[in-house]
Amino acid sequence: MTQRWSRDEGLKVIEGATVERMRRHWEDGWNRNDADLICEPFAPDVVFSSPFVPRIVGDPEVWEIRGYDAVRQYVVDSFERATHGIRYRCDEAHAGTDCVILTYTVLHPAGERLGVDLMRLDDRGQVVEWRCHYPFEA
Questions:
Q1: What are the phi and psi torsion angles at 12 (to 5°)?
Q2: According to DSSP H, which parts of 1-138 are helical?
Q3: pLDDT digits (tens, 9 = 90+) for 35-81
Q4: Is residue 3 part of a domain?
Q5: Is 25 within a domain?
Q6: Domain, as residue range, for 60
Q7: How many domains does the chain have?
Q8: What distance, in Å, lies between the first and last C-alpha atoms of the chain?
């Protein structure tokens, strides 16, 4: 069995309550198709990136979406274009000095797909950077 690190070992790490809050916003928001819940912890100047951004925005040179309103609209649009019949399961949540990493499974009608999201937080606990990562075939 893998042993978890202890927060009382003098480590600088994001508090467990913050990690759990981020996990709940992400998992509950996606499974409820609730863009406000997903985006609630995001800062006004949040930056989002995903390998799918160029395809979604229709410009192969655009890899990031900037600003709360634009990121929220991307999430809203994703409910229409890609999430019908899909469920999300957060498998693990990891804490770092200023980031939360969520590993998850997308339960898709065509089969399960894995993903990892990195969310960097500012000093107020707001997400200032959200980056999506997926395993791709070599």
A1: -90, 110
A2: 16-32, 35-39, 53-57, 68-81
A3: 999 999 999 999 999 998 998 888 999 999 999 999 999 999 888 87
A4: no
A5: yes
A6: 16-133
A7: 1
A8: 31
Tokens 């981020």 sit on residue: 22
Of 33, 132, 26, the closest CA to residue 81 belongs to 33
- Domain contains 10: no
Specify if 138 maps to a domain: no
- Residue 19 tokens read as 């990690």
- Number of Cβ within 10 Å of residue 122's Cβ equals 13
Q: How many CA atoms lie within 13 A of 103 on its CB side?
A: 5
CB 133 within 8 A of CB 117: yes
Return the CATH number at 81.
3.10.450.50
Residue from 103, 99, 104 nearest 128 by CA: 99
Three-state DSSP at 15 gives: coil
**Structure pTM?**
0.88
| DSSP code per residue over 107-120 | EETTEEEEEEEEEE
Q: Quote the CA–CA distance of 67 and 45 in Å, as a whole number.
A: 4
